[in-house]
């Protein structure tokens, strides 16, 4: 039965094609009617050809046609399809000549060459929709010539989905979270009327992959911080954090960041329960690069507020269990981005955007304390589950500027963010009797899009 369908289809196409070979008088109306007829033939031939390919792909012996005959039919379909296309192309050239000769006296069915390209336009718009670049396509509506449209769609899709600037906020967020981890790992008891200081050098490396069709997103942070705390009484203390880091994002493009961090925290003990609150501000200066086009420096201003509660089981003993919960609010503001002009290339101008996050964490630390003649050794093992409870991210909005002319505005696609993240932690601290404290730690993170995220730190502290 399938064979009969293909044979009838081929016969129909053959008749249409043969009819199209008869020479008409050089009347533009006849040429136009033949072109429209060939348009119809092309649509049918294209559907038959695609259908036969699908049939071959899903072939089984119960179809009533041999695989060899089906392959021959596909070859015949392709032959007629190409012949009709060639005939249509020749007629279009003939139509252009006749229309030019008639000039203002032309009164045919087709009023512009674009009308003849309606099928092609529909396919282009379908591709535009498929690639989700309608807004950028409209911004370039005067550039969508036939020869450049495929290149245009590819380049616009690349700009829309692969510009590095959409990852600026994520780089800042990772910086804020890194400082948050350090304060959480401050396990010592409050000592009345005493100071405690700690310096730390840290390095963070993260690799994420949205899907296998895109490059990995690589993040890195290298920095240092200092913490100082004063015990107001045996249950309350106040502290300050100063730090900074150099951050880098690299994937389709790159971002370099320099950040400065300042925060204040309070700790309060009530029996075996400890509460901690922190407020912090981070200032970041960023610079992006996209296909050899470099942005001017742009700024990021971010704020963080954190509330944390811990409960200590067996606090005074050698083995203590410490479950905890943390609630954090992050506010990240990214300023306007302007790219430096590059000859023969349109540049991007991106408006400022704001990101807001409410994050919740649940974790458990196991603290093993060992007492030696010259000091105390603490090993801390931990696990944590962090989730984004709520978020609001302004999509980046930008436009192209070329030779003092600008396109209409369009939106970039938001980056994908993993809602849930797990981490495993280990920290070792040795406190000498003279008050000097040494330490180092490792944190390993994993999520649905993470491939390899880890952080190492080295610490030196002193009690006085």
Automatic annotation (TrEMBL):
It comes from the Bacteria. GO terms for cellular component: outer membrane. This is Outer membrane autotransporter barrel domain-containing protein. Gene3D superfamilies: Autotransporter beta-domain. Residues 202-406 form the Autotransporter domain. Coiled coil: none annotated.
